[in-house]
Amino acid sequence: MTRNAKGQSATATITQPRKHHPVADNAVSPRHGRSWLRSFLAATPCFLAPLTSICVFIALSEYEGSFALLAAAVKQEGFWTICTRYGPEITAKGVLAVVCWVGLQAVLFRYLPGAIQTGQYTPAGYLLSYRMNGLSAWILTHVLYGLLSWYGLLDPGFIPRNWSSLIGAMNLAGFCISALSFVKAYVKPTHPEDRKFSGALSRLYEISASWLTRTIGSSLYDFYMGIELNPRLGDNFDLKLFSNGRPGMIAWTLIDISNMAYQYQTQQRVEPSLILLTILQGLYVLDFFVNESWYLRTIDIAHDHYGFYLAWGCFCFLPTTYTIQGQYLGLYPQSPSTTYLAVFFATGLAGYALFRSANSQKDRVRRSNGRCLIWGQPASYIAGSYTTSDGKQHTSLLLCSGWWGWSRHANYVGDLVLSYSSCALVGSSHAVVWIYAAWMTMLLVHRCMRDEKRCADKYGAAWAEYCGRVPWRFVRGNPSPSIGAPATGPTAPRRVTSRSAPSQHTRHPINPAANVLKLPATPPLAALFFAGASETSPPPFPLSHSESSGSSEWLAHNQSRFTFCPPMDRHAQAVADIADAVRGFFKLGQAYRVFHGSSNSTRPRHGSGQNVVDISMLASVISVDVKRQTCLVEPNVPMDRLVEATMVHGLVPPVVMEFPGITAGGGFSGTSGESSSFRHGFFNETINWVEMVLGNGDVVRASSQERADLFHGAAGAAGTLGITTLMELRLVEAKKFVKTTYRRVNSTAEAISEIQDEIENPHVDYVDGILYSNDHGVIVTGELTNVKPEEYPPRTFSHASDPWFYLHVQEKTKCLPSFSTFTEYVPLGEYLFRYDRAGFWVGRQGYTYFKLVPFNKFFRWLLDDYSHTRTLYHALHASRISSQFVVQDLGLPYDTAEPFINWVDQELGIWPLWLCPLKGCSTPTFHPVAESKDSPEENGEKQGSSTPGMSQPMLNIGVWGWGPEDHQEFVAKNRGLEDKLRELGGRKWLYAHTYYPEEEFWSIYDHSWYQALRKRYFATTLPTVYDKVKVDIQAKWKNREQWGSSWLSTWPIGGLYGMFLAAMSGDIGLHRQAKWRYKLE
User: Fold this and answer.
1) Which of 312, 319, 321 has the alpha carbon at shortest distance from 46?
2) Distance CA 841, CA 848 (A)
3) Does pLDDT of 814 surpass 60?
4) What's the start-to-end Cα distance of the chain, in Å?
5) pTM confidence score
6) In b/e form, how buried is each residue of 345-383, taking b as 16+ CB within 10 angstroms?
7) Nearest 10 degrees: CA dihedral of 1066, 1068, 1070, 1073?
8) What angle do CA 7, 8, 9 make, to 5 degrees?
9) Does the UniProt entry include the keyword Cell membrane (predicted)?
10) Quick count: other Cβ atoms within 10 Å of Cβ 999?
11) How many CA atoms lie within 13 A of 164 on its CB side?
């Protein structure tokens, strides 16, 4: 007798179970089955599993993935201290994120349409139906993730940045879901007949006793292994399928992608190893959802009851353990050789092919009732019969040909090959990287044993015959007898039709361990498990402070690790940590790389080692002193945040770089001259003093009165004399608007002459110019003012509907006669960052690159997110287009500027050109300078001589445009530009490609002066300026021939890849949040 139960979205065919007599009371007595032992065995994983996830997290985030370093720290400080200090945290942000994630997946699981499939009969005779919408949910989730990232509503690197709090929340979710399912099994079970209690002899035991009687046996064991087989919320929300196949599985690929985004955000590139790993694991996850109906016949769904083992495993263990490889690469980027990656990627694909092929063969036999070909031959199989608890007999087919004639668990072999290959792609020997593969080995070996025991019980003689025909469990070799069935000799093939094959395969998800942005104000998760753990403990290794810094200082430094710190206290703590790291590398004589978190350099990046000093946390405006008109600024503060912090006090930096993402530290360590530099000089000349960590770890202050040689030498030295950690910046009065005047000129000579006249005007605050061609130029001047005539509407340039500044100026002046003017009033913030959209005019070249995208107002509006300089820089680095693009700023004396512009026109044909007048600066220096007035040429002294002097005012010329497509010709043109520049008495800015041979480079820049500074301030272990700015032509050419660079150089792959990573960078929507933007009415 059967009955149909219809829900809102699924129909379950339920077979009335057979009646069973109650089991005698003594069968469930506390003595039965040694309940104390079961309780102990069940409690152990409930305790150790979260603890293990905590240990893995700490090893990854704090000890470079090394269990040896973690063990050494534990031995010195104690296990609970390390867990308390570095363990995951439970925060409101993490809990909210997990709740929103699970809620989103629950809504998609419940309401997305999908085909209805039935699972296997339960022991009580239920045949449940399921809606297969996992693929739709996976696609929709990833599209939503992409859209939120695209529009700046979600940081694509959110997961690794908040991994600590997410792990805490996932652990909490695992326990909560486990407890919910445990209580539900007693209070409102879905199918009471399918429950299993540790104290009962039968699954069909009918419970009618009291609550106390119901828990006879081992409640801990029931909590761990689960009571209900298929718990449902309502008629059709299957809790087990949802847990096993939604939050964790979908999160797997999302975590990998987020790790890619994080690696790009922190390293400005994504290593091929992480890309290939994401592809391999993404293929596995996608296969899971494409073949989701197959999952209904696996052990997880058909046989395992739903308790802590599945609930915590799917909500926490899967997303934290299966993704360890991606987490490791997100934190410690590395990429083995191309050959190594190719071998293991191909091996992984082969493993997946074996896995998919084996499962497909079995599914094909089941669907065709055995009437199909396997490897070109008719399928060979054995018919096995079994009886369900409702008394009905069923038949399944045991496939004996294809992969299933090769071994009894060929699909497990493919799974293992794929697992080990994905771990090998990381290229690390650290044990933590291989946890996934080790877990899969244990899991699949255990499942193999369970499979064979269950099949032996289910099919009896048919299984024994199958084992005789296929005696190998995993690979061919010595025969492996089946568990629970004797091995028999081969028998004649039998071809039978089949409706269902045994569950000889499985599926699993994967997890992550990524970067962690700690939120110290919240208690670590481990503290909830182990009360009384100290928040402050001695350091894990011998202190490396100088003699004046003892352990008491270390304790004082760490006293506020988990409490709120005032800005300067927080800064002091961060600088002390940075100094410790630098001191350690100095004592070991090891080189290291400084990680800032962003870059506005257009130079190609060189490979990085594992020694990294992270200063990305130094990104705050500490204070603004309105009375003194100064502010304390950390080095990673970008210009837009600096302007926003000072404008609220009616102040603004006198020199503001035109790109919002350029940082204060970059302005000091690099060269930054802007349209106000004709009056105030380079950005570093507006700084009163800087705090630096020297190469030996000492923290010092440098100014024009204290360590003046270091203060002057470090400016423009690309961070090669020490790490800048703080600076005091002078400010000037800010005003509401900039009265902006565009003056038309008809020749290069007129433009240069007009600029020289304007810089003498005491009322002018900003001067620059644009040369559109030989006969069309515009000189732009700006005057700060609080008064705007009513007939002049505010002119803005930051909104998507606004024109690009250079196009606007061109349009307004194209019909003006020579020396005629056009005036507008531009809000101050809009003026300071007027060149942000299009990166002056570099953004125009993106349309040239893609060719098919029209360059018109509509598409500039549509693609506005990609026109801002933060995004442009990401795309430039990621796509390798910088190797085809001339991006040079050159400083020349006024009297040689016109011949140089003519040379650029003839040799490169690049227009427009930017003109920016610069005040002279002190020499020697790495800044661009013209010949010193105090060091006449007739004295035979070169530019930048060790003799102090002052360079003459000069004109910066910005040359930005496409170069020759042929790489060798591209290099030759750049070398020609460098030669011409030197001939005309100029010098280039070192942020861009530099092709000088080393000997020639040091003939331009004063080597003896620089080396003396390096020795005096312990910087000899740091790279030199030349090391940082050079282009290794031979290595670059060799790299172009490798697969990673060659395909990125292929149109349009490089451009599309750059756009993708720019969207993943997390910066693509920052301009919408800018407070300096003028609000349109």
Assistant:
1) 312
2) 12
3) yes
4) 73
5) 0.61
6) bebbbebbebbbebbbbbbbbbeeebeeebeeeebbbbb
7) -120
8) 95
9) no
10) 8
11) 26
CA pair distance 1062, 872, nearest whole angstrom:
8
Look at the alpha carbons of 871, 872, 873, 878 in this order and tell me if their dihedral is positive or negative: positive
Return the residue matching tokens 């879901």: 177
Phi, psi of 740 (to 5 degrees): -110, 125
Residue 964 phi/psi, 5-degree rounding, is -60, 145
Cα within 13 Å of Cα(937), Cβ side: 5
Residue environment code for 639-651, b if the CB has 16+ CB neighbours within 10 A, otherwise e: bbbbbbbbbeeeb
Residue ranges with strand state E in 865-1008: 885-892, 913-918, 922-923, 949-950, 954-962, 987-988
Contact 571, 844 (CB under 8 A): no
Listing DSSP states for 780-830 in one string gives: EEEEEES---TTSPBP--SSTTSPPHHHHHHHHHTTPPTT-EEEEEEEHHH
Rounded Cα distance, 893 and 888, in Å = 17
Cα torsion angle, 428, 429, 431, 435, sign: positive
pLDDT tens digits, one per residue of 11-37:
333 333 333 333 333 333 333 344 556
CATH architecture of 737-929+949-1040: 3-Layer(aba) Sandwich (3.40)
Cα separation values, 825 from 225, 783, 804, 1076, Å: 72, 9, 16, 16
pLDDT tens track for 742-782 = 999 999 999 999 999 999 999 999 999 999 999 999 999 99
Percent of the chain with pLDDT over 70: 80
Q: What letter represents residue 548's amino acid?
A: S
H or E segment and range at residue 947 = none
Token pair for 341:
């990656």
Q: Which two tokens stand for residue 350?
A: 């082969």
Sign of CA dihedral 879, 880, 881, 887: positive
SS3 767: strand
3-state secondary structure of 285: helix
Query: Quick one: pLDDT at residue 657?
Result: 96
Copy the structure tokens of residue 815.
């019909």
- Residue ranges of the chain that CATH labels 3.40.462.10: 737-929+949-1040
Element (H, E) at 398: strand 393-399
State both tokens at 727. 């600076």
Specify the pairing of strand 2-6 against strand 115-118.
unpaired
Contact call for residues 425 and 273 (beta carbons, < 8 A): yes
Q: CATH 3.30.465.10 in the chain, residues?
A: 568-734
What is the Cβ-side half-sphere exposure of residue 573, based on CA atoms within 13 angstroms? 17
Separation CA 86–CA 558 (nearest Å): 12
Cα 1076 to Cα 1071: distance, rounded to the nearest angstrom: 10
For residue 633, list its beta bridge partners: 621, 727
Question: Domain 568-734 is in which class?
Answer: alpha beta
Q: What 3-state DSSP class applies to 738?
A: strand
- Vertex 812, ends 919 and 905: CA angle to 5°? 55
| 934 neighbors 979 (Cβ within 8 angstroms) | no
Residues 6+ apart with CB under 8 A from 271: 263, 329, 333, 334, 335
CA-CA distance, 952 to 894, in Å (whole number)? 10
Measure the CA–CA gap between 123 and 302, rounded to whole angstroms: 10
Q: Is the distance from CB of 162 to CB of 155 less than 8 angstroms? A: no
Q: In angstroms, what CA-CA distances link 369 with 363, 373, 382?
A: 10, 12, 12
Please give the sequence-ordered ranges of beta strands (E in DSSP) within 493-558, or none if there are none: none
Question: Which residue, chain included where needed, has tokens 């494409």?
Answer: 290
Start-end of H helices in 791-893: 805-813, 828-832, 844-850, 857-862, 869-879
| Calpha distance 48→41 (Å, rounded) | 11
Q: Going by DSSP bridges, is the β-strand pair 913-918/766-773 parallel, antiparallel, or unpaired?
A: antiparallel
Residue found under tokens 């992409």: 146
317 DSSP assignment: I
Per-residue model confidence as pLDDT tens digits over 184-226: 888 899 888 888 887 543 333 343 333 333 444 578 888 888 8
